[in-house]
């Protein structure tokens, strides 16, 4: 059951200056949400790259397999997969769990970890999309009311100047 917002204000009662300030604030919030959306999308793509790296680079490959190791997003160095000292153990990958911490996991667990991150970010992206849609609607409404008030002020100013000119010509 939805309840009306406690701080709801009838924007038609606001002055042009207040509407302009509200418009600027909504625009700033939209820019912030858009930036956040872009950053989350980039993080999601990085996690998908991690999944792809595990699937294509390590999973199912034997020791001494040549591969390129990423040092940055654009710098790779040649390397080979090391053969585990204990041949009974499966290969492991280092998974970046954030803030410079890495955890050793099996390739399957690494993929599962990154898939969870991708799914979590997808939910956050949907929430941001909804917020952006709501802010866009609010901004459009504020702009419409602002435009109407400015036109009304112009028309009132034009009528007043016509009356002043008519009185000056009569007197």
TrEMBL record:
Molecular functions (GO terms): unfolded protein binding
UniProt GO BP: protein folding; RNA polymerase I assembly; RNA polymerase II core complex assembly; RNA polymerase III assembly
InterPro entries: PFD_alpha_archaea, Prefoldin, Prefoldin_subunit_alpha
SUPFAM superfamilies: Prefoldin
GO annotations of cellular component type: cell division site; cell tip; cytoplasm; prefoldin complex
UniProt similarity note: Belongs to the prefoldin subunit alpha family.
PANTHER family the record matches: PREFOLDIN SUBUNIT 5
Name assigned to this protein: Prefoldin, alpha subunit
UniProt lineage: Eukaryota, Fungi, Dikarya, Ascomycota, Pezizomycotina
């Amino acid at each position: 059951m939805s309840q009306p917002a406690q701080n709801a204000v009838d924007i038609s009662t606001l002055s042009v200056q207040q509407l302009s300030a509200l418009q600027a604030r909504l625009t700033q919030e939209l820019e912030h949400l858009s930036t956040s959306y872009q950053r989350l999308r980039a993080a999601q793509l990085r996690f998908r790259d991690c999944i792809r790296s595990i699937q294509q680079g390590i999973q199912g490959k034997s020791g001494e397999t040549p591969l390129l190791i990423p040092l940055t997003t654009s710098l790779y160095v040649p390397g080979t997969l090391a053969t585990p000292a204990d041949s009974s153990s499966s290969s492991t990958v280092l998974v970046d769990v954030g803030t410079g911490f890495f955890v050793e996991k099996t390739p399957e667990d690494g993929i599962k970890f990154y898939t969870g991150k991708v799914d979590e970010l997808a939910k956050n992206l949907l929430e941001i999309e909804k917020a952006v849609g709501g802010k866009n609607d609010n901004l459009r409404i504020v702009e419409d009311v602002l435009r109407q008030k400015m036109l009304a002020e112009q028309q009132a100013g034009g009528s007043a100047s016509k009356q002043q000119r008519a009185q000056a010509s009569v007197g």
